[in-house]
């Protein structure tokens, strides 16, 4: 057990994350169910997740905003240009390991040097990203220099670009059938479906949130394992990008990060140049139980009341509280694995 003693005004800096989900508010600790709170990285790696299944070759000239993210010249993720110096992709494509990454433009191939190759210098992850639950699976890459390719258009915040039944195109590098990998840009046209319909597939039952978007009907066409971050576009409007899938490629819809739900975060990172977008939450990813002692500050005695402390403790789930009437010290503990 780890004990932290702090003033009430900085209690919010302990490893607590507020996650908006549907109409409720979830309070979670930065335990092993999250991927840690690192939001900015200068050394980056990527994680493979999804490929295009049942697709056909695409022409890069028709989709100049698509980039392959590479390590040692080999594609590990896809990303989408949304500003001259910024790419958007999935959060799980961004890590803090010291590995050089580049972005390739104007190339239909997943390797080689026939396109424009630009070094990636920073990566950003949404502060509420939860890897295990795929929540807020969005990140951005900052390029070393601006590029001249035409960016994709960001969607309207009201979701009008992603209506159920709209046919969208998903792009990426990878499989055209089970266990068959290719190395040229692939595309497949699939309809956007409702979360209610998507939820009927066993792989997705009770796992979908309003920050996610489903596309595909399980009729042989979908995203699949191997190349995360591939854009889902409607007339060059970026409505989503590949986040995760079930185990049966082509037989289940793909799940995408819904771009309209994370527009504020994307715009904030781009507008600020990435400054001050790191998390203020300490990394306690291996802490199973955390005990916090909060002591009132004489300078800010009203920053957090005893009632507020109890409310936070109650929201945390498994907890113990200790308070002596009249004292300004409160202790609560919660099980970080809950």
Describe this structure in words.
- By secondary structure, the chain is mostly beta strands.
- The protein folds into two domains: 64 residues, no CATH class; 233 residues, Thrombin, subunit H (Beta Barrel), CATH 2.40.10.
- It is 7% helix and 37% strand.
- The protein has three helices and 22 strands.
- The protein has a six-stranded antiparallel β-barrel.
- A hairpin with an 8-residue loop joins strand 18 and strand 19.
- The longest helix is centred in the last third of the chain and has 10 residues.
- Pfam families: Trypsin (PF00089).
- It comes from Hyaloperonospora brassicae.
- Provide a count of the helices: 3
The CATH class name of the largest domain reads Mainly Beta
Low-confidence runs (pLDDT<50, min 5 residues)?
Answer: 1-51, 278-338
The CATH architecture classification of the largest domain is: Beta Barrel
- Structural class by SSE content: mainly beta
What's the CATH H-level superfamily name of the largest domain? Trypsin-like serine proteases
Helix content: under 10%
Strand order of the largest sheet: 7-8-9-12-11-10
Report the end-to-end length measured between terminal Cα atoms. 16 Å
Rough outline: globular
| Overall pLDDT metric | 69
Count of discrete domains:
2
Provide the succession of SSEs: EEEEEEEEEEEEEEHEEEEEHEHEE
Strand proportion, as a percent range, falls in: 35-45%
**Extended strand count:** 22
- Stated plainly, the CATH topology of the largest domain is called Thrombin, subunit H
- The radius of gyration over CA amounts to 22 Å
What does the main sheet amount to? Answer: 6 strands, antiparallel, barrel
